[in-house]
Structures are given as C-alpha cells and as structure tokens.
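Task: complex structure prediction.
Instruction: return structure tokens for all chains below.
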Amino acid sequence: MKIAISISGNKLESPFDPRFGRAAAFCLVDSETGEWTAHENPALSASGGAGVQAAQFIAKLGARAVVSGAYGPNAFDTLSPAKIEMYLAPTDKTLTAADVLALFEAGKLGKAEAATHAGHHEGHH
Amino acid sequence: MRIVVASGKGGTGKTTVATSLALSAGDSVRFMDCDVEAPNAALFLNPVLDNRKEVGIQLPVVDEALCTHCGKCAEVCEFHAIAVIGKKILVFPELCHGCGSCTLVCLEKAISERLDVMGVLESGMTAMGVDFAQGVMNVGEPMAVPIIRELKKWSPAHPFDIEIRDAPPGASCPVVETMRGADFILLVTEPTPFGLHDLKQVVGITRELGIPAGVVVNRDGIGDNAVEAYCAEAGLPIRLRIPMERRFAEAIASGRTLVDAAPEYRAAFRTLLEDITARVAA
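Output:
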C-alpha cells in the first residue's frame, strides 16, 4: 500500500509538514517494499482550493492513505470519496518523514473522521 | 464618461463627493453604488427603487450519466472548484468563481450551469432625475466582485452622459472591478497618515490600470501636510478641498448631501467635473 506523508523537503529525513493542502511536498512510501519517492505539491502555489488540488494529486500518485497534521473540509470531502484514509500525526514535536512512517507502521496514528478545522474560504451556502 | 470615486481608507467621504458630484452634473447622470457590501448612497439620493434583479455566478452542474471522468474540467479550473477522483466528480461551490471554463472544455457536454444567487441589483430614479442603481450582496457571501460586474453590465433605463460609480473602500478586487473600464478616478482622501497610506495603495491600482486620477482632500485642515507633499511629488492634482466643518458633518449625519447643506459648493463640483471632462478629453 502506498502512503503519502506531507513533508517539507525531498528526503525521508525531511521534516514532517503538518499542513495538507499547503504542504511543500509529499513523500510517497510503499509499505511493502519500503521504496519511497518525493513529489513537490503542485497546490503549494494555488490561488485557492489547495486542499482539493493536493487531494487529487496524491490520488493520482496512487496513495491509499495519507498522513498529515490537519485536513480542511474541502480536502476531507475530496479524500473521502477517493477512499484515501486520512491519518493524523502529532504537530507539537519535530518529526521527520521517517519518524512519521515509523509511527504509522506501529499503528500509533489516529484517523481523521472529519475535517479538523474550518475552511479558509467562507462558504456561500 | 465614467468616473469612479474611490479612496482606499473607509470614511474619507467617497459617498459625500460622489453624491454631490452627481447632483451638480446636470441631466443624464447615472449613479452606481458599487459598495455592494454596504451600499449607502441611496440614503442621500433617495431613489425610488422599482427595478430589481437577482444576480450571482453560474455554478457547474454535472450530469453523471454523460461524464467520462476525463478530468479536463478539473485541470482547467484555476480555483480547484471541480475535482475528478477516480470515477467521482466533485463540485465545491464555495471555491467556484463562475468563470464557465469547465463548461467550455467539457467534450461530453456533461456540464450545465445554474445561477447561484449572491445578491440583488436595484435601480430607480431620484427626485432630482439621477438614474440610480446599486448592488446589495446577501449577508454571508464572500465575493463582491460578481455582483459589481453584473451591476456594471446592467443596462440603464435611460441613456446617460455621465456615469458616477461610488467605489467600495479598500484596495482589493472589488475596488479594481469598480475601476475597470472607467475614464477617470477621483480619489477622496483626508490629510492624515491613514488617508495617505491608503491613498498610495489606490494610486498604485489606477496606474496599473492606466486610468487618469485626481485627488479630493476632504476634512482639509486636520492632520498634516504629508498628503499635499505626496500629491505634488506623484504629479496628482488636488482638484478640490473640502474643509473640516461641523455643519457638513451634521448635515451628512442627518442624510443630507453636501451640496444641499452647502449650495455654494455646487459651483466647485461643476468646476471639478469640467476639469475631469477636459482631462479625459486630453
């Protein structure tokens, strides 16, 4: 299974980035083989809808699970139908992507069952 | 001729200047209150608002039976308001700017559009013969620009020689949209550090848009000389000064216009309009 981890950098030792839509990059790890690749997040410079764009991006990469620090409502609503499981890693300590992966593999990360914060856009409905 | 009255800083006297300019401009004047978040010029001009139109943006509606999930709509959308995830298509109305690109690029013609009402346009004549129109944004809406755009497109009931647009405060998208297509921008400021700071921002917008501008100094006599110095340095003519006087404040607080409370200013506003006309013709 492929897992996407939001990071700021391009290595497994790069710091975990607790933002989802505006994460600098995603580290894509294959949990069976341990192989990983880093991918710059195209939504970083989006004028809006970064969560939606980042979610589509990791879906196209083939991720079945994602680890980040927070998910907004639009990210949540895009990842849910894509059946990508959303995990939350602690945001109060300095972690690397490798630390986050270890926590994930040890089953120590909880799932986000709803958006973790309100959107950055005020809805008009 | 289209004149926008703008300021940057709120409460400098945009509506005071715009309404008195309209009342000094003779016949065939159209007045548009583009401050759709808090329109207030009607309080001074008292139009009979007998025309009304709901406006907003066109949101995409996807026919799932026709959609092939090719993803072209999601690719073209600058705001990521439409997403394709596997065999699912999602629309995020609060991200949509209503540009219609997704509808255009859909090869299957699976996308139709529905009006998402964001506010209303209202118009009518004033007793003084001004053809008045305003936009009013619904409470809770985040985007004023679509309403201003529709207001500008709304055909006037009568032909006009002069159109005066009362701009919203600030220096963001609604102000830019109000200024777009204008022939002249009248910047109302006050001689204070706040007035100057925001004046500089809107001057930047007028230059970016390439529209000539002039300044009205309101509450002249308070504050300092920094606005004066800046205008001289920036080559911005100060076309009118309105002194700080209690009687003006009292009249405006009771819903009267400046030229109604101080008819001696009618000539000054006429001269201002002649100056603007000459500048636009130049």
